[in-house]
Amino acid sequence: MNDVSKGLLFVLGGIVFMLLSFILPLPTPLWAVVLSASIVLNCTGTVFLIRFNKSSDGKKDLG
């Protein structure tokens, strides 16, 4: 699994957790855990995507 796939998977997982925190009526501690997981997943996915972007900066063919 390359950096793009990992990055997109983590970002999409973070978006899912963020939407769950908005939709579900959760108690405050559980809401904080879900929102924290969303932030961590989104940041991790962004790091993978930036790493891929920097590694393929000089390459023209991404395929």
Task: Tell me about this structure.
With 63 residues, the chain is an all-alpha fold. It has one domain (3-55). The protein has helices spanning 3-23, 28-55.
The level of helicity is over 70%
Shape call: elongated
Can you count the helices?
2
* Poorly predicted residue ranges: none
Distance between the termini: 14 Å
Strand content: under 5%
Helix/strand order: HH
Count every beta strand, where a strand is a DSSP E run of 2 or more residues: 0
Number of domains: 1
Mean pLDDT: 89
Largest sheet: none
Helices and strands: which structural class?
A: mainly alpha
Can you tag this structure with a few keywords?
mainly alpha, 63 residues, 2 helices
In brief:
The chain is mainly α. The protein is built from 2 helices and no strands. It has one domain (3-55).
List the helices and strands and how they pair.
Blueprint (H helix, E strand, L loop, with lengths): L2 H21 L4 H28 L8
